[in-house]
């Protein structure tokens, strides 16, 4: 009788462990989706500032017409981001367009004192810079969740549970190739 109880107890413990690892993988996938949605929310915050920036640049159109085009490209790139699909390539495009628009605005402000003295322009530039900081923080959280998820499906015993039950695939984290190109250290490189 005691052998039967011990085997039943081992089976119950095994099932509980299996359920726990299954739930960890599901929780990790959900955390990635939530973190991605947070990145999208932060990106879209920029869209609230763009119309006012476009209005100011339009007033100074004689100074810099290319800036308006860059702002339009930035808006289009941000609106292409989907909150239900993790697409780090689309995020790279949006970030690239943002950097391009901001550099164009900075050049225009330096070249044309009337534009530089517009306090509203300075406030909007500061707001976009703050939003970029928030986006960077959201991306760090997203990447952390991706790392935790990938670890949960690639390390034992989670890998065995994932292979048999969850069948989740490894997720890609966001990386900024442009920023990384300036660094001499590469993980795994000698």
Helix content: over 70%
The N- to C-terminal Cα distance equals 60 Å
Give the name of the CATH architecture: Up-down Bundle
Strand residues, percent: under 5%
General form: rod-shaped
Instruction: Return the structural class.
Output: mainly alpha
The CATH fourth-level homologous superfamily: LemA-like domain
CATH fold-level topology: de novo design (two linked rop proteins)
Plain-language structure description:
The protein contains 7 helices and no strands. Helix 5 crosses helix 6. The radius of gyration is 24 Å and the shape is rod-shaped. It has one domain: de novo design (two linked rop proteins). It is mainly α and 190 residues long.
Layout of helices and strands:
Blueprint: H1 2-59, H2 66-79, H3 88-111, H4 113-116, H5 119-154, H6 158-166, H7 177-180
In short:
The protein has 190 residues and is mainly alpha-helical. The protein has 7 helices and no strands. The mean pLDDT is 82.
């Amino acid at each position: 009788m005691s052998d039967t109880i011990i085997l039943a107890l081992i089976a119950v413990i095994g099932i509980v462990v299996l359920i726990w690892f299954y739930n960890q993988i599901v929780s990790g996938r959900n955390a990635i989706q939530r973190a991605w949605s947070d990145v999208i929310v932060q990106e879209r915050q920029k869209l609230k500032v763009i119309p006012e920036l476009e209005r100011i640049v339009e007033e100074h159109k004689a100074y810099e017409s290319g800036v308006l085009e860059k702002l339009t490209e930035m808006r289009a790139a941000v609106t292409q981001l989907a909150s239900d699909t993790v697409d780090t390539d689309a995020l790279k495009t949006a970030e690239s367009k943002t950097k391009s628009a901001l550099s164009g605005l900075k050049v225009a402000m330096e070249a044309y004192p009337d534009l530089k003295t517009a306090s509203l322009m300075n406030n909007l530039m500061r707001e976009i810079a703050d939003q970029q900081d928030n986006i960077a923080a959201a991306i760090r959280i997203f990447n952390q969740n991706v790392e935790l998820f990938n670890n949960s499906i690639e390390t034992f015993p989670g890998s065995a549970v994932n292979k048999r039950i969850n069948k989740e695939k490894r997720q890609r984290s966001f990386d900024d190739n442009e920023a990384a190109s300036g660094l001499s250290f590469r993980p795994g490189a000698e």
